[in-house]
Amino acid sequence: MKQRLLDALNNCPADYAEIRFETTDNTGFAYRGKELDNASTGQFTGGIVRACKNGGWGSCVFDTLDELKSKVADACAAATTVGKEKTALAEIAVPADQVFTAQLKNDFRGVSLDEKVALVGKYNDIVLNAVPGVESSTVMYGENFRTVHFASTRGNYFMEERPRILLYLVAIARNGSQVQRGSESFSSATDFTVVLNREDKAREVAERAVALLKAPQCPGGRHHVILRPDFTGVFAHEAFGHLSEADFLYENPQMRELMTIGRQMGNNDLNIIDDGSLGQLIGTHHVDDEGTPTQKTMLIANGVLAGHLHSLETAGKMGAKPTGNARAIGRGRPPIVRMTNTYVDAGTLSKDELFAGVDDGIYACGMQGGQTMMEMFTFSAAYGYRIKNGQVTDLLRDIVLTGNVFETLHNIDGIANDLTMFELGGGCGKGGQSPLPVTFGGPHIRLRDAVIGGQQ
Ligand SMILES: [Zn+2]
Hints:
The protein is of the alpha+beta class. It has helices spanning about 1-10, 70-80, 115-130, 200-215, 230-240, 245-250, 255-260, 310-320, 350-355, 405-410; strands at about 15-30, 35-55, 55-60, 95-100, 135-150, 155-175, 180-190, 220-225, 270-275, 295-300, 305, 325, 335, 340-345, 360-365, 370-375, 375-380, 385-390, 390-395, 400-405, 410-415, 420, 430, 435, 440, 445-450. Zinc ion binds next to helix 5.
């Protein structure tokens, strides 16, 4: 494969060109209510040639490796039509030949489809029947195994296997016009057992959906808020991480100013990190989709803005080093600047010390959904609790945290030492490429005077 790709790129007239080719095996099915629907399995192959000439990009998407040289020529011709400036792609030192096979602890490919359907059907029964009041369910299983080959005119080649499995458990409860949902999801790049023994979680989502029907709405106004690690992680990714992506910054001079390296972003104990080389998480790869090795990038170090996330092109244009964050969702799609595993680093307080500092506040758990508009964000917690005298008390629904990300980062006045990373279903969406596997995480963090939407 390596030689075939490199031969096709030989004598290419562009300043730079690359071929990415992949094979993906997919299996997925879902229960919705009592019905099993949407079961599918299949293998897909395809790829993309990208070429850059005088700063302009051209691409050619293909299904088979036949006549690859003419596809390279098409991409180069397209790039030549577009290019009007100087090509500025950062240099990277990478070995000529890299092969990364998946290191699976428990291989999902060895388990029959019947077994998987029976397992997921059992969870669905629990979600639907564990407690009275659940109206419907969505219980979904998915797995895919991508094998990615890449070569560029710089002479480098890699092959990387990228497996993933995931499980969603969702319960829907209704009382008149009010609808509440309980959900959990699990994902792994290495281990089929992540979807086993989830009966307790299936029961938990059903119980929570029903309990939320009776829970009071969270009062609006300014509150001291403690974010559970899963909410901390989504906040780090959604509210801050996307602002760190250099393609976005390059196109938004105003945001580039606000995201200047060296700017004070919070207290000295605040560290936010993106690390595509971390462990074997679903956001982890050896190399990104331009062949750049992944790395640990400090976005905020000791409260100060320390770095941005880059592709070859954004690094070249902004005079920075590539960070291994050029990622594509699959065959036929170009890599764009994306996060990998993004988290707030652990602080020094215990969780108890963090809660002891709150006489009257809100504990925000899980993430239901949200929106960001530049530095402004609005996120809904899946559920939460009132905090009284440092103790977690009554369940609350409709917790909507809103505000300006820079102000909110400054309002973090306590960071616990219980950093947790989350590998969940779904993923990140950007530029029409969704869901990209990412993880996020953090410890419990405490916000002073955060804005909660809704009636006071
Ligand atoms: Zn995202």
